[in-house]
Amino acid sequence: MKTKATLLIILLLNVFSCDEIDKLTEFDVNDSFAYTIIVSESTDSEGTPVSISESITINLTDNQDIDDNLDLIQSVAVNSITFEIDNFEGAELTTLSNVLLTFDSVTLRLADTDLKAADDSNTSYMVGTASDYDNIANLLKNNKSVTAQISGTISETPVSFDINIKVDIKVVIDVI
């Protein structure tokens, strides 16, 4: 019986490469980690710009499949980061400028945005480069969570709007 099992293993190793066998023990977890930052400034700034700063935490353990396999994570990839303005209320030409989205040590600059136009068009803005995504993925692989801070300047208040941030992530888990 041992001889037959050994022959079967040798046959499988000859038919399948080690990489192909390794792929059989892996599975991918794809998730869109979505967050909403609510910005609400009720005081009238009388045309004077106002700075904002808010933060969120992206935590891989929010996904149950990832949480159940934390010690088996082989790789983490960030596929995209987007933001969208929603529920805008304020003066017609209010802008959000000098916007930085910082993930620990990785800083992404967002384009200046006409808040009403962005909300009306439902535009989803891509943020970052492949290199930025790799750096953020490394942070997530090593720490399982990362704090993202968004800061910028609103041209005038009163104003309220939501900033919807979505980070699409792929985690490869190797069970063997």
Description:
Strands 2, 4, 5, 6 and 8 form a five-stranded antiparallel sheet that branches. The protein is 26% helix and 51% strand. With 176 residues, it is an alpha+beta fold.
Q: Which key features would you list for this structure?
A:
four-stranded antiparallel sheet, 9 strands, single chain, 5 helices, alpha+beta, five-stranded antiparallel sheet, 176 residues, elongated
Topology:
Layout: H1 2-15, H2 18-24, E1 26-41, E2 50-59, H3 64-67, E3 73-90, E4 95-103, E5 106-110, E6 113-114, H4 115-121, E7 124-126, H5 130-143, E8 145-154, E9 159-174
Antiparallel strand pairs: 1-9, 2-8, 3-7, 3-9, 4-5, 4-6, 4-8
Sheet having the most strands: 5 strands, antiparallel
Spatial separation of the terminal alpha carbons? 25 Å
Backbone shape: elongated
On the 0 to 100 scale, the average pLDDT is 89
SSE sequence, one letter per element: HHEEHEEEEHEHEE
